[in-house]
Specification:
Blueprint (H helix, E strand, L loop, with lengths): L3 H10 L9 H14 L3 E7 L3 E8 L5 E3 L5 H4 L6 E3 L12 H4 L6 E8 L5 E9 L7 H58 L4 H31 L9 E4 H18 L3 E5 L5 E4 L1 H17 L6 E5 L6 E8 L6 H6 L21 H11 L3 E5 L7 E8 L2
Parallel strand pairs: 8-10
Antiparallel strand pairs: 1-2, 1-6, 2-3, 4-5, 5-6, 7-9, 10-11, 11-13, 12-13
Helix pairs in contact: 2-5, 5-6, 7-8, 8-10
């Protein structure tokens, strides 16, 4: 059962309130006026305490206080709503538009209903004399209401498509910065180890992995940008999360060693689940990279992976700068930068933790952060469903 809070959340999601005049909606209300031979036609959106008109003809106001009887009552119904004589109808007789001089007498509306079943407002018509619509007119009002919703959906999907492209670009920038940023460090170490062939081979392999990751990010971006898919596609494949984590840790040890930090682990020999390997690697990389970034020289970072029958929990704990109460509230908000500054002058985009939360939720999980305050370390707990 939907609540008024849910309905208002749906209305706000469309971001249509208080937007400028739009010719497409103006055309619809003019058609409603002409087809139904009424002096007033409106596209109303029912906000928390007001009725706001996206478009209208015959009523020279942009909004009214929310009162029962007309639009506020019409959205409670999923069907056509009609008041033939407002003065004689108990639902509307006390409405301010009815009680005023030469007030309204007739009202008919079709709710504007989303695909999820939320009534955002109405396409309504009014008259200053009693009347009723015949079946053909009711059908015309219903069809025009469908056109209004199609316009709202088109507008929403266009906005989400642009937003998806913007989000994708930011995520790619963030991921490339992490992977490419390791390559110069690896090259420095490689030159220092020139007399040790085994170490050179190992560092060369890590460099190759960082380069391959960068290439994979670019390739995935090109595919997603071409599709411009609003919901990002997450694969479901059988993976060994322990093996994946060890690979991510090995790459991040380059940065940790530079700051004389040690990554300590407590991982099962094998942990099999269904998920998107690339996305889960991205999640782990962001958390471990963050722990390195916000921990002082010489501190330890801990990575654990306990599980139960339904879920596993990736725990990344550090003894670093910690978080304030305000940081904890905003930790997973996109583009939010926390009060702590990286200890090695590293960059921060404010995207890493938001990406972590998005990936966790796509795997039927959740993201949680715990910190006792400034300079008392931080613990991230990422729950991930096993199936």
């Amino acid at each position: 059962m939907t609540t008024e809070k849910d309905r208002l959340a749906a209305l706000n999601f469309y971001e249509i309130l208080d937007t400028p005049q739009d010719g497409a909606f103006d055309t619809i209300v003019k058609l409603a006026k002409d087809f139904l031979d009424v002096p007033i036609a409106l596209i109303s959106l029912v906000d928390e305490d007001r009725i706001w008109f996206k478009s209208g003809v015959g009523l020279p106001v942009k909004q009214l206080n929310r009162e029962p009887g007309f639009c506020s009552s019409a959205i409670i119904s999923d069907e056509f709503y009609e008041i033939q004589d407002a003065i004689k109808d108990i639902r509307s007789s006390n409405h301010s538009l009815v009680r005023q001089k030469n007030g309204l007498r007739f009202y008919a509306a079709q709710p504007l209903t989303t695909e999820d079943g939320f009534n955002l407002g109405t396409l309504c018509v009014m008259d200053r004399k009693p009347r009723m619509l015949n079946n053909e007119q009711k059908e015309q009002l219903k069809m025009l209401a469908i056109v209004v919703m199609q316009q709202l959906e088109t507008r929403l999907k266009s906005r989400l498509a642009v937003q998806a492209q913007h989000n994708l670009s930011n995520m790619v920038t963030h991921d490339l910065k992490n992977s490419i940023g390791n390559i110069p460090l690896l090259m420095d170490i490689l030159m220092e180890q020139a007399e040790s062939p085994d170490k050179v081979r190992n560092i060369a392999k890590l460099t190759q992995n960082a380069a391959n990751k960068s290439f994979a990010v670019i390739q995935e971006y090109m595919i997603e940008a071409k599709k411009l898919s609003i919901p990002e596609v997450f694969k479901k494949e059988v993976i060994d999360l322990t093996k994946l984590l060890k690979s991510v840790i090995q790459i991040n040890e380059v940065s940790a060693n530079r700051k004389k930090q040690i990554i300590q682990t407590s991982l099962p020999d094998k942990l099999i689940l269904k998920g998107d390997a690339k996305k889960l690697a991205e999640l782990a990389d962001n958390l471990i990279n963050n722990a390195i970034k916000y921990s002082p020289m010489g501190k330890s970072i801990y990575v654990e992976l306990p599980k139960d029958l339904l879920n596993c929990t990736l725990i990344v704990r550090d003894n670093g700068l910690g978080m304030t109460k305000d940081d904890l509230k905003k930790a997973f908000i996109r583009f939010n930068k926390l009060s702590a500054k990286p200890t090695g002058d590293e960059d921060s985009t404010g995207l890493g933790l938001w990406i972590v939360k998005e990936i966790a939720e796509k795997h039927n999980g959740s993201a949680r952060v715990v910190s006792e305050g400034k300079n008392k370390g931080t613990t991230f707990e990422i729950k991930i469903a096993l199936k």
